[in-house]
Amino acid sequence: MQKRYFTYQEIHKTAKAIAERVTASGFIPDVIVAIGSGGFIPARIIRTYLGKPILAVGIAYYDANDKPTEFPRKVQWIEEAERKLSGKKILLVDEVDDSRTTLEYCIRELMNHHPAEIAAAVLHNKDKPKRGVIPPEVSLYIAGEDLPDLWVVYPWDAEDIDEHDRKARQ
Ligand code: G4P
Ligand code: MG
């Protein structure tokens, strides 16, 4: 599969552009919910511009019998995030919208906790047939950049960041 490398510099600018689009839309989140682990760093950069607290959630790919599953099965709520979401305006952040299954699952889980409003933002959306949908309750969906169906290589996965940046420049 074709790969595309992004530098921290590019990620930062894309996250800034997302924050600006959120603000321009009039949506003022109370809280940023980051989907781990890919959403952690984008959420932190967005926080620089929006100045809202971050709650982190993880997704588990296992069933009730601890068997691995292909689809997300459980949201791991960190720091009792659940109790803090009721009545809040949430900006959900992840790094990539690929099959959309994680994103849909996470949005539906969040909606169970009665937020006032949900917006979702990703750095990159892949232009491809999706297995999941963005539920209609989501008032705003922002993709920092639309990409063809390739493999995105993020700088936080790099073991050698200089080598990563060289590949990104090519
Ligand atoms: P989606 O709803 O966001 O489309 O997620 P999907 O379930 O399709 O993705 C499953 C996992 O694959 C996710 O990571 C997602 O970040 C990762 N992924 C999909 N496409 C790419 C890509 O092009 N590049 C990279 N680097 N990752 C991709 P996860 O299992 O939640 O783990 P984490 O890496 O976020 O911790
Ligand atoms: Mg992810």
Instruction: List SSEs in N-to-C order.
Output: EHEHEEEHEEEH
- Average pLDDT for all residues: 93
- Oligomerization state: single chain
Instruction: Using the coordinates above, name the CATH class.
Output: Alpha Beta
What small molecules does this complex bind? Answer: guanosine-5',3'-tetraphosphate, magnesium ion
Which sheet architecture does the biggest sheet show? 6 strands, mixed
Give the termini separation.
17 Å
Strand content: 25-35%
**Shape estimate:** globular
Number of strands: 8
What CATH calls the topology is Rossmann fold
Number of helices: 4
- Give me the secondary-structure category: alpha/beta
Q: What does this molecule look like?
A:
The chain has 170 residues and is of the alpha/beta class. It has one domain (3-169): Rossmann fold, CATH 3.40.50. It has 4 helices and 8 strands, in the order E-H-E-H-E-E-E-H-E-E-E-H. The longest helix is centred in the N-terminal third of the chain and has 18 residues, at 8-25. The radius of gyration is 16 Å and the shape is globular. It starts with a strand and ends with a helix. The mean pLDDT is 93. Bound molecules: guanosine-5',3'-tetraphosphate (G4P) and magnesium ion (MG).
Question: What is this structure's SSE topology?
Answer:
Elements: E1 3-5, H1 8-25, E2 31-35, H2 40-50, E3 54-60, E4 74-77, E5 89-97, H3 101-111, E6 117-126, E7 138-147, E8 151-153, H4 161-169
Parallel strand pairs: 1-8, 2-3, 2-5, 5-6, 6-7
Antiparallel strand pairs: 3-4
Helix pairs in contact: 1-2
The structure holds guanosine-5',3'-tetraphosphate (G4P) and magnesium ion.
